[in-house]
Design goal:
The chain has 419 residues and is α/β, with parallel strands linked by helices. The protein has 14 helices and 15 strands. 43% of the residues lie in helices and 18% in strands. The termini are far apart.
Length: 419
């Protein structure tokens, strides 16, 4: 109980400081926020060796899967990508102060709906330390303060990144409380955040199924979350064979531990015999294993058999579920039964079938002739992302600057009184 009390006390202090910082940010002009982001990017580069040393300590203590180790790993290129991400966000248009709509009432009142910051955001995430930099950039640009609670696996990396970012904030003359991290990775801090009504305005969880489910179950603060990334790629009968092999290999194996990785391959029965062996062979060469239905195993007999839960599993690893379907509607039915409304793709040269798929798929992101791993805020031109939203309120898909704003109304009159 004492640890929990300390966590609540720390969160209360952090949230009050963040509230004051968010008010400063909301009143800070675009040029100053953008300059802050560029200085923070420089600070990340200047602290590159400290960040990599901290990450090496995290990796030395890690004993999980290779896919999750990849999520945790930083190197020179990934640190540079974090810094570049801050500069990319700085180059984007200011999301604040946008006039979303305006109109004049018959009585002469002029009404505007204006984009404004949400306020104080709590971010709970797991192994990927670069998430802290992405979230910090987007929150700063959109005028929000953020409290970042990373996982225990990436604690050293998160602290080193935060140190660099905060030094950049201070050099830019912005409040250091804009970006904060807890003093440790104690789980009591997560409980304190979830109970932080009045302290936090929004919680964004980014991690595995158990984390997201806990946040959605226990939070007393509004939540912007995603379900599992149970993504599908459907190879239609009119798919270009070489394109299908190239796209499926990338969608599964580019980074199998990310939420946009394809977890299930669906292939039309009409082309399964001709194309499935080649697709499987490519993936095997990349280290992928499989779980397949009976129809797929009749084409490639040495594929391991899928059990009752495999098509409902987000592997986040070098594993792929495979099923044979009878046309686009059969594929759509499979995805509706097993998917998580995250990201799904169709490979086909038939435009009418592709448009049918895009119109009827019930996910946050749907692609035609492209890898599901494009489901990323940076690839959307958002500069970065703070997560993927699969709900139906406020935001869906990659969450960037626009999705981190709310709105208020400004009304201008000439002395009107209400009868």
């Amino acid at each position: 109980m004492q640890v929990e009390t300390e966590a609540i006390q720390h969160l209360r202090c952090a949230a009050h400081a963040a509230r004051e910082a968010s008010r400063v940010l909301a009143a800070t002009g675009t040029d100053r926020r953008d300059a802050g982001l560029r200085i923070m990017a420089t600070s990340l580069r200047d602290h590159r060796q400290q960040i990599l040393a901290a990450n090496s300590a995290d990796l030395a203590a890690y004993s999980g899967t290779n896919a999750f180790r990849d999520r945790l790993t930083l190197n020179e290129a990934r640190v540079e990508a974090m810094a570049q991400g801050l500069e990319d966000v700085a180059a984007l248009p200011d999301p604040l102060g946008r006039i979303l709509e305006e109109w004049t009432r018959p009585n002469g009142l002029r009404i505007q709906r204006i984009a404004t910051p949400i306020g104080v955001i709590g971010m709970i995430y797991e192994s990927r330390p670069n998430v802290g930099a992405d979230a910090s950039a987007l929150c700063l640009k959109s005028g929000n303060a953020v409290i970042l609670r990373g996982g225990s696996d990436s604690l050293n990396s998160a602290r080193a990144i935060n140190t660099a970012l905060v030094q950049g904030l201070e050099a830019a003359g912005l409040p250091r409380a804009c970006i904060q991290v807890p003093p440790n990775a104690d789980r009591a801090y997560v409980a304190a955040m979830l109970a932080g009504a009045g302290l936090l305005d929004l919680i964004i969880p980014r991690g595995g199924k158990s984390l997201v489910e806990r946040v959605q179950r226990e939070a007393r603060v509004p939540v912007l979350a995603h379900a599992e990334g149970l993504c599908h790629t459907y190879v239609h009968a009119a798919a270009d064979p070489e394109m299908a092999r190239r796209v499926v290999a990338n969608a599964k194996m580019r980074r199998p531990g990310v939420c946009g990785a394809t977890e299930t391959l669906l292939i039309d029965r009409a082309i399964a015999a001709a194309q499935l062996p080649g697709i499987v062979g490519d993936l095997r060469m990349l280290g992928c294993d499989f779980r397949a239905d009976a129809a797929a195993r009749s084409v490639v007999p040495d594929l391991p058999a899928a059990n009752d839960t495999d098509f409902d599993t987000e592997w986040l690893d070098a594993m792929l579920s495979v099923a044979v379907v009878d046309g686009v509607d059969s594929a759509l039915a499979h995805i509706a039964r097993h998917g998580s409304s995250h990201t799904d793709a169709i490979i086909t040269e038939d435009a009418s079938v592709a448009e049918h798929f895009l119109a009827h798929i019930d996910g946050a992101v749907a692609l035609w002739n492209a890898s599901t791993q494009f489901c990323d805020g940076g690839e959307f031109g958002f500069g970065a992302e703070i997560g993927i939203a699969t709900g139906r309120i406020h935001a869906r898909g990659p969450v960037g600057l626009e999705q981190l704003t709310t709105y208020r109304y400004l009304i201008r009159g000439t002395g009107q009184v209400r009868a």
